[in-house]
Amino acid sequence: MDIRHRMARRAAAYFASGDIVNLGIGIPSLCNNYAAPGVMFHTENGLIGVGPVAEGLKCVESFCNANAMRFVPVPGSCVFDSADSFGIVRSGRLAATVLGGLQVSKRGDLANWARPGKMVGMGGAMDLVNGARKVIVTMELTAKGQPKILEACTFPLTGKACVDHIVTEQCVIDVMEEGLVLRELLEGLTPDDIRRQIEPDLLVADDLSVMAA
Fold it and tell me: What does each C-alpha distance from 33 to 29, 115, 163 come to in angstroms?
């Protein structure tokens, strides 16, 4: 299994049957492949029940998510307008959202929508990180050798103290009140290997486990 799918599978392990979950673009969008039966996926442009990617004659313009990906709705899907969709997000009815990240701080601040000097759009991530009950970030641990888990984010923030779990290709880190806690580690690595690639102090869980290959 390649790195992207391994990270998506690990992030999907946080879902439970009956959850309504929103997925961001990139690695988060792959979580649909690994979710437990009974998990329903939400898209900001107005649907709960996002199913597999549509191909061939199954491609219908009406069923297109917020990332412009056409999909097949699952049985029991519900369609509504964008205002209702963001009402669902803002009212706390989403069990979780999975998003990519450019930077995460030691207190769980997230920067994922803009790099200084780049033209970008804002999207709905600001609502998601404040409305979803659990925020899961999937990202590589570093970018061109530079840490992405920092003492403080230097890019514009998406949300403050909003991240619960960070899933990377090397480890899983929980953002706790006492600090960042290493929860899982890729086989062959040590906690010190992770510490060398991030800025903040890193605590190690008593029940530290090996990430599934």
Answer: 9, 30, 23
For the chain, what is the mean pLDDT? 94
Compute φ and ψ for 206, nearest 5 degrees: -60, -30
Query: pLDDT, tens digit, for every residue of 127-150?
Result: 999 999 999 999 999 999 999 999
CATH topology for 3-210? Glutaconate Coenzyme A-transferase (3.40.1080)
Catalytic choice (44, 61, 151, 177): 44
Residue 101 has phi, psi (to 5 degrees) of -145, 140
pLDDT at residue 204, as a whole number? 98
* Amino acid in position 29: S
pLDDT digits (tens, 9 = 90+) for 84-142: 999 999 999 999 999 999 999 999 999 999 888 776 666 679 999 999 999 999 999 99
Q: For residue 108, which of 168, 41, 197, 181 has the smallest C-alpha distance?
A: 181
| Pairing, β 110-111 against β 103-105 | antiparallel
Q: Is 184 a catalytic residue?
A: no
Nearest in space to 130 (alpha carbons), one of 97, 93, 107, 159: 159
The residue ranges of every structural domain in the chain are 3-210
Cα(165)–Cα(84) distance, integer angstroms: 27
